[in-house]
Amino acid sequence: MMFFKPRFLDYHNQASGIYKSLFNFKLLWVRSIVSILAVALLPLLVLAAVDYNISKQAVESEILLRTSRLVSNARRTLTSYLDERKFALNFLILDNTYDQLLDEQQLKLLLENLKSGLGEWSELGVIDHTGILRNYAGPYQLKGMNYSEQDWYKKLTYTDLESYHDNISMRTNISDVFLGFRNMPHLVISVIHGNPTGNNWSHYILRASLDIEHLSNILSQLEVSGEGDAFLINHEGVIQTPSRHYGGVLERFPLAVPAFSERTQVVENLDHLGHQVVIGYAYITGTPFILIVIKQKQELMKTWYATGSKILIFLVGSILIIVGVVFGISTYLVNSIYQADQKRVATLHQVEYANKMASIGRLSAGVAHEINNPLAIINEKAGLIKDLFTFRQEYASDSRLIGLIDSITNSVERCATITRQLLNFARNIQVSIQKVNLQQIVADVLEFQAKEAGYRSITIKVDIPDEIPEFVSDRGKLQQILINLVNNALAAMKDGGTLEIKSHLDDEGRTLVTTVSDNGCGIPQENIDKIFEPFFTTKSGSGGTGLGLSITYGLVKEIGGTINIESIVDKGTTFIISLPLEVNKGELDARIIG
Hints:
It is built from 14 helices and 16 strands.
């Protein structure tokens, strides 16, 4: 595919003055492209950027909102789950006396009732005010164990006796997940109750254990998108339930513990691997737990990225189409202006050339008339002298004198012939639509070129058959065409060359084909298509203007013909002119005048 390069890019502006910029077509082309692209693309890009940011913010806000709802719902579920178990223990400790709770059979019955009602209970125990497990129902041998040094026990009991008397009744505690005596991760729900004995107060504790599997099941049922993870940590950052990506139970959470908040919070941050994540968290009231929900933002935004990619592809495609259309239209318009300007300049030169030829014609007519008058006097006087010499015997027999007079008469006749040719040339330059004889026009043109051809030993051959009929055309334009082509041929040949002018009718007998051939330097193939362009010349260093063949091309078109060229470098060039023999005179007048 050939690269299209506008012709005006190689045009060098020759204009000057205040209007010089009007003829800088390259600058005009660049300005038009830049201005149109700015008007077309800037609103599109601004709108695309605004839409991109707004839609992205909307998607991100929706992600944060969904995460917040998820965390809030999970928080309520966990709170209800733990509250149910605290209320159940509260009911048992209020419904049973201390002595009843110390009965092993009664305690086992209570555990069975808890399992049948709420399930998920693994053990039940009663601890006295010294921290000793007095009664136990469950799968382990824990009776008699001392829990006074356990963290949950210390948090549940007060050391301040004054506050102890006021707050000891019905205080509950949910412990962190820990290994304990059984060396298995579990948590403890315990309820403390006052036990008055005489004037002194003591207390006892009803304690129940839960496996973390039940909490893990609750969290695993959450629909966490974006390869999300939901788990519990305590206030110290220790993981309480298994996590998919951030560690196992009782391992350290790799991120910072979120700041306390009474409400659900959602933030964006980087995790320990440098991934962009959305973190939703909520402190579960009355427990040491913090609910953590972490979503991979990259996964959450995949749908948006896919949509954004399609929008980006559409945007880039639209921009490419707009740029292509703007380049095409701007190039076409500027090139049209350039061609119109070239035609304008060529027309001005053609008018100048026509005026010059008309001036030469008028000058030739004036010179011919001025010369004819003294020539007529010379001719008459020479004839009179010859007549006088004839009547006198001594002069009539003098052959030398008679020969000199005949020489004068012959020279006068020769000058008269030249002046007649000048007058014919002057008359032919004027615009006239009439029947013309090609042989006569060629003869008139060559009459003025014969001297130069003779000096340069150039042979001129003319082959125009007598049977070629006269045809209607503009004599002056046809003469200018042949003069330009003959001049071009003479300029292309070295001394001793050959110029041939031939004519013939085509097969149908409706078109006259005339060829003007030379054996000069020829024209390179790459310049053949440019040879009729205005101002194109291969003789810029020797006075060539590049308008001769352009004007010739225009003249041929004006009289209804066509012109073609065949050329071989160092072999020669042939111009082929085809003219119709039959043409409407009014049509030809309108074409030439127009």
